[in-house]
């Protein structure tokens, strides 16, 4: 993993936008570059919804973590590809949400990220202050290597239930490999674990805006995985989904306090679901 991190850092291109940094910029975070901020402005010119959609995604992640920690008794989280959002206020970061919701003082959170800037910043600003959070350089597109990482193997106890939040499905543009990733995670996690999934879709995009958005993504984020509801359902086949099932992210256990995209859930542009791993 260290060699891969060095390679990625050497190849870090601040002039090209990346999806996790775009969402960070849209949510008011600091882990992004001018190219990402420009992309937010371009999207807002086509459809002024990206900033609100980014907030809806952050709120979904927080609600999932709170639910699993408070109601399902989960004491271990592996959050893959969240971008470790920097737009969240102190005390409201994802690991803070988990620890505040849990009755366990030993709750652990492992972030797995492929963006070298995100990894470096988070390791410098989070890890020094707690022994119960780790930030790991890993890529869901290299799932076997990611799961073999020594920190992943030792920081989390794989004999006990783990909640895996897969937030980086946008990078799984090969359908066969996407299904393999879900299968691999299902077989790795012990009984009683959970798998949460976030996935971008065009299902809610107005017909008149779709060509412009497709063209923009083709030029700027050509490998971004976009799937229909039926295709996302296929990824979750044979898993026991918690109520309310696969829904627009604002519809998953909504909190009426500042619910982004609450009036028009499809404007979030993302489906979300949480499944119990048998």
**What's the CATH class label?**
Alpha Beta
What is the percentage of strand-forming residues?
5-15%
Number of domains: 1
Specify Rg, calculated over alpha carbons.
18 Å
Low-confidence stretches: 4-11
**Which structural category do the helix and sheet elements fall into?**
alpha/beta
Helix content: 40-55%
Order of helices and strands: HHHHEHEHEHHEHEHHEEE
CATH superfamily: Vaccinia Virus protein VP39
Which CATH architecture?
A: 3-Layer(aba) Sandwich
CATH topology: Rossmann fold
Q: Count all strands and give the number.
A: 8
Shape: globular
Distance between the termini: 30 Å
Largest sheet: 8 strands, mixed
Integer average pLDDT? 86
Specify the number of helices.
11
Tell me what you see in this structure.
The chain has 278 residues and is α/β, with parallel strands linked by helices. The chain has one domain: Vaccinia Virus protein VP39 (Rossmann fold). 41% of the residues lie in helices and 14% in strands. It has eleven helices and eight strands. It has helices at 2-10, 19-26, 34-46, 50-71, 94-101, 116-125, 143-148, 150-155, 175-188, 210-220, 229-235; strands spanning 76-80, 108-113, 133-137, 163-166, 194-200, 240-241, 247-248, 270-276. Strands 1, 2, 3, 4, 5, 6, 7 and 8 form an eight-stranded mixed beta sheet that branches. Strand 4 (163-166), helix 9 (175-188) and strand 5 form a beta-alpha-beta unit. Helix 2 packs across helix 3 (34-46). The longest helix is centred in the N-terminal third of the chain and has 22 residues, at 50-71. The protein is globular. The two termini are 30 Å apart. 43% of the residues are buried.
């Amino acid at each position: 993993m260290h060699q891969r991190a060095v390679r990625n850092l050497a190849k870090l291109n601040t002039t090209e936008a990346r999806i996790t940094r775009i969402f960070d910029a849209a949510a008011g975070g600091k882990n992004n570059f001018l190219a990402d901020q420009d992309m937010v402005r371009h999207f807002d010119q086509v459809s002024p919804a990206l900033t609100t959609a980014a907030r809806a995604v952050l709120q979904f992640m927080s609600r999932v973590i709170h639910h699993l920690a408070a109601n399902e008794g989960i004491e271990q989280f592996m959050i893959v590809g969240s971008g470790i959002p920097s737009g969240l206020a102190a005390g409201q970061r994802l690991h803070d949400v988990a620890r505040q919701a849990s009755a366990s003082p030993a709750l652990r959170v492992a972030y797995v990220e492929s963006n070298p800037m995100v990894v470096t910043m988070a390791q410098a600003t989070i890890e020094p202050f707690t022994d119960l959070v780790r930030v790991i350089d890993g890529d869901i597109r290299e799932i076997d290597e990611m799961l073999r990482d020594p920190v992943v193997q030792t920081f989390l106890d794989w004999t006990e239930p783990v909640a895996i939040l897969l937030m980086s499905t946008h990078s799984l543009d090969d359908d066969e490999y996407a299904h393999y990733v879900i299968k691999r995670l299902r077989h790795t996690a012990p009984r009683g674990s959970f798998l949460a999934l976030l996935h971008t879709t065009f299902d809610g995009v107005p017909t008149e805006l779709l060509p412009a958005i497709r063209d923009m993504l083709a030029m700027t984020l050509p490998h971004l995985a976009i799937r229909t509801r039926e295709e996302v359902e296929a990824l979750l086949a044979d898993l026991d989904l918690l109520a309310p099932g696969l829904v627009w992210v604002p519809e998953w256990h909504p909190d009426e306090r500042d619910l982004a995209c609450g009036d028009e859930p499809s404007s979030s542009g993302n489906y979300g679901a949480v499944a119990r791993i048998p």
